[in-house]
Amino acid sequence: MNSNDLVNRTLDALERLMRMFAIERYLYLIxxxxxxxxxxxxxxxxxxxxxxxxxxxxxIFGATGLIAASAARVSYFLNKSFDLISSIxxxxxxxxxxx
Length: 99
Prior knowledge:
Elements: H1 3-20, H2 22-48, H3 54-98
């Protein structure tokens, strides 16, 4: 098996992996947008209201928690994808040095 064939197979596998988890990535994008909207609502309430209430704090903590959860899952997915690419590149390097 030559290195070009291995690279093409790796990129095809990565593309299939990205398509397989496309819905999950869209859900994380939607949750990030919702949390951004919640943060904007919290900022507007903090500016227009006199004090900070329980609703304001729950909006802030809920939105930041949602952002953290989404970012962690996206980072985990990208880390796994890059690990796949890294293992293929290492295998390619081994094949190249043997030849």
